[in-house]
Design goal:
The protein is an alpha/beta fold. It is built from twelve helices and 13 strands. The structure holds pyridoxal-5'-phosphate. Pyridoxal-5'-phosphate binds near residues 79, 151, 153 and 188.
Length: about 375
């Protein structure tokens, strides 16, 4: 079976874990600090704060931005549920806006229409590994005094005009979950150029305790710390990120060339001045296709190829959000795209033969 994702863990990671286990520091300690420094320097940003998940880092970002009960946060319904749940965790109100058809990210006009006098934050998602178009939204945010949290959980290593993912908002968030472009099993990172945000984020992950004064509690906090065991894996993975990314881009280029011209199959777009890091390689299956998406998924599976739908239903149509008053028809583009997307394997553990095989199976099926 050609898997949709596969972590690449080698002897470097295993040796690093062994060293950490023998060091006596197994919870948050020097490895976490070293990883934070390395990721900050990689993103060319002044502060990085590690967490035990991307979700925890998202939650902390809204605390650090002083989100208050009832404050509105605008985000996309076409994302992983954690993006929206973090808003609820901090007492905020989730306000969805529709997406655009090019990169499935937030649509500028739709966001503009959702701004009210309660709006405090916008959370765009750098979906599938491509950075959102931040320029116009930043102007909007300045005009209305809003903060931006960049959910870059899927886009570590991506670039726009030579700037790295994680450096486009007031805060950036990465995930180190097992399926992400680099991983330590579970983990997350918050990036920022603002020392106050970094300080508050550190407090939040450590029970509301300041790093400077022991056993003084300033606010409600959580236990969101990353372990040195995990951080020592993350350090080795970060060293391999560039190699992994190049492979993903190479596989994606090959897939796009091979799948070009198939009726009813649209290959993903890389926008101008962007480096798309293909966390997912996502095609669209439209009504012009020979059969339908479900039939193609089944056929791929029979030929030993795993594929996935991210996301089969936009968030506003799940019971969890319908209770806030959303319904079918609210975000027509997100609803349409959710019915068309299909992600194919693109991870760096694939061989060139695997990629050629995926292309051949789809070409044969569609002809
Ligand atoms: C993975 C992911 C998250 C959550 O990260 P975890 O580390 O799994 O908590 C949040 N947002 C997006 C867009 C993601 O892909």
């Amino acid at each position: 079976m050609i898997k949709l994702s596969k972590p690449i863990i080698g002897s470097k990671e295993i040796n690093a874990v062994n060293r950490t286990l023998r060091s006596g520091n197994i919870a948050q300690g020097p490895q976490v600090k070293a990883f934070e420094d390395q990721i900050a320097s990689y993103c060319n940003i002044s502060h990085a704060v590690a967490f035990n998940s991307g979700t925890a880092a998202l939650h902390a970002s809204l605390f650090a931005l002083d989100l208050k009960e009832g404050d509105e946060v605008i985000t996309t319904p076409f994302t992983f549920v954690a993006t929206a749940n973090a808003i609820l965790m901090q007492g905020g109100k989730v306000v969805f806006a529709d997406i655009n058809e090019d990169d499935f990210n937030l649509d500028f006009e739709s966001v503009r229409q959702k701004i009210s006098n309660k709006t405090r934050v916008i959370i765009p998602v750098d979906l599938y590994g491509q950075i959102f178009d931040y320029q116009p939204i930043k102007k909007l945010a300045q005009a209305y005094k809003l903060s931006i949290v960049e959910d870059a959980c899927q886009s570590i290593g991506a670039e726009q005009n030579k700037k790295k993912a994680g450096s486009f908002g007031n805060v950036g968030i990465f995930s180190l979950y097992a399926t992400k472009n680099i991983t330590c099993g579970e983990g997350g990172v918050l990036t920022t150029n603002n020392p106050i945000i970094a300080e508050k984020a550190k407090m939040f992950r450590h029970h509301g305790q300041s790093e400077k004064t022991h056993y003084e509690y300033f606010a409600l906090g959580y236990n969101y710390r990353l372990t040195d065991i995990a951080a020592s894996i993350a350090i080795e993975q970060l060293k391999k990120l560039e190699k992994f990314t190049k492979k993903r881009i190479e596989h994606a280029d090959k897939l796009s060339k091979g799948l070009k011209g198939i009726k009813g199959l649209l290959t993903p777009i890389t926008k101008k001045n962007n480096r798309h890091v293909f966390h997912q390689y996502t095609i669209r299956i439209t009504s012009d296709f020979k059969t339908n998406r479900k039939a193609l998924i089944d056929h791929l599976y029979r030929r030993g190829i795993e594929s996935g739908v991210y996301y089969p239903k936009p968030l506003h149509l799940h019971p969890h959000f319908i209770k806030f008053g959303y319904r079918l028809g609210d975000f027509p583009i997100a609803e349409k795209i959710a019915n068309q997307v299909l992600s194919l394997p693109v991870h760096p553990a694939l061989s060139n033969q695997d990629v050629n095989y995926i292309i051949r199976v789809i070409q044969d099926y569609a002809s």
